[in-house]
Amino acid sequence: MPSTDFDVSGLYDEHSLKAHVPPPLTELCVRVIAAHFSSRPTLRGIPTRHINRVTELLPTDLPLEVTGPLIDDEGYWKRCATERWDNCQITDHGSSWKRTYFERNLADFLETFDPLKVDTEELTRTLAVSKDYIFSLRIKQFLSHLDMEMLFQNVPTLCNLDMTFGVKSIGMEYERSLFGMKMNDVTSLARALRVTETLTILSLPCNLLDDNTMRQLATGLQTNSTITSLDLSHNKIADRGVKAIAKLLDER
Predict the structure, then answer these.
(1) What architecture is domain 135-252?
(2) Which of 6, 70, 186, 233 minimizes the number of CB atoms within 10 Å of its CB?
């Protein structure tokens, strides 16, 4: 009778056998946690050695209300930032990818915020989500004439503010009224400067500031004790505006 023993050693190579080996149970658990993170957002009870693997698998479009308080992994925030923006200079944001994402996200929101088109509740929500991670804001166009005191109160850690009122790339729809800080903007900012406890750098370039608006701004700067750097470049300040600022340069 012919032999019934079969040599199967040649039917499967090493790679084929590995392909059929299921992943470890820990990996399966990690995948399930990541897949359901939006509905069950928690890292509690997960061993530290597995947390980075969970964040590696998380999608970058999860709500900031979920990811902000829970995730500090820089790799996750780097993915979020680089998928959204082409050029991310983390040195402008304390060399932190998490700060980079939150500061650029808030700046983008404020640059397009129009209270006539967007519910102010959305502004309140965005500020509430961002407030713990915002130290520097650079706003290249500001349209809303927002209450600056409200902004400072909702971003209590703000140290550096660079802001220009106007519209970028406006083309043939140019209107003079869309550019520069109005007196009510300056008055609002002056009130905010009296109460801020963190702002050290204030930059207001290209805001069409003149002598009258500068004198109003000086009333806020007069009682401010935190600002150490002030940029008023490319404005329309003449003698009286300069004198108003010069009076602030005392021993304090």
Answers:
(1) Alpha-Beta Horseshoe (3.80)
(2) 6
